[in-house]
Amino acid sequence: MPFGGGNKCGCCQKTVYFAEEVQCEGKSWHKSCFLCMVCKKNLDSTTVAVHGDEIYCKSCYGKKYGPKGYGFGGGAGTLSMDTGEGLGIKPEVQAPHRPTNNPNASKFAQKTAGSEVCPRCGKTVYAAEKVIGGGNSWHKGCFRCAKCGKGLESTTLADRDGEIYCKGCYAKNFGPKGFGFGQGAGALAHSQ
């Protein structure tokens, strides 16, 4: 221990007395000097990261010395437009985005001769919106009864001549007619 009562502070180089001493990596610091070199946050044994003679909070240390690139330090917990210039990091200049000249960039973007077409609207049906019923592929929004417009499921549809109907409309329009077949005083009427 040097003459004067204590070790020298790793930051201000003044004497550190026992009551105000914080030790890290074999060096002594004043509690008031034990701060991140970049953001000046107070540090403790769980938040300090040492690089040579410099001390940082883990966040600033990671920004300055941690891995760089996509997937490192970006995400919901670290949304920031900070380029790290305050840490002595020179931001990379990115080339401007140029769209590809390839008209068939992916197989999903290519339309093939066998692509499925919705019988209701006549537009292409892609896998994410595809519902199969009545022997055809339909858009989810088009998978409705042709008469009343009620949304259908594979268990609640009836098909006829390439068109799909709810069971109620199918029975009313194409089912048996006459006394005892849903058309009379004892039957519930389906009104549109």
Spatial gap, N to C terminus: 96 Å
- Based on secondary structure, the structural category is mainly beta
Shape: rod-shaped
Q: Which blocks of ≥5 consecutive residues have pLDDT under 50?
A: 104-113
Mean pLDDT: 75
Oligomeric state of the chains present here: single chain
The tally of strands reads: 10
Give the proportion of residues in helices. Answer: under 10%
Radius of gyration: 36 Å
With strands numbered from the N-terminus, the spatial order across the biggest sheet is 1-2
Fraction in beta strands: 15-25%
Major sheet attributes: 2 strands, antiparallel
Any overview of this molecule?
The relative contact order is 0.06. This protein has helices at residues 58-65, 167-174; strands at residues 7-8, 15-16, 21-24, 27-30, 48-51, 54-57, 130-133, 136-139, 157-160, 163-166. The longest helix has 8 residues, at 58-65. The N and C termini lie far apart (96 Å). 8% of the residues lie in helices and 19% in strands. The chain has a two-stranded antiparallel sheet. With 192 residues, the protein is mainly beta.
SSE layout:
Layout: E1 7-8, E2 15-16, E3 21-24, E4 27-30, E5 48-51, E6 54-57, H1 58-65, E7 130-133, E8 136-139, E9 157-160, E10 163-166, H2 167-174
Antiparallel strand pairs: 1-2, 3-4, 5-6, 7-8, 9-10
List keywords for this structure.
two-stranded antiparallel sheet, 192 residues, 10 strands, mainly beta, 2 helices, single chain
Q: What's this entry about, in short?
A:
This protein is mostly beta strands. It has helices at 58-65, 167-174; strands spanning 7-8, 15-16, 21-24, 27-30, 48-51, 54-57, 130-133, 136-139, 157-160, 163-166. The chain contains 2 helices and 10 strands; from the N terminus they run ββββββαββββα.
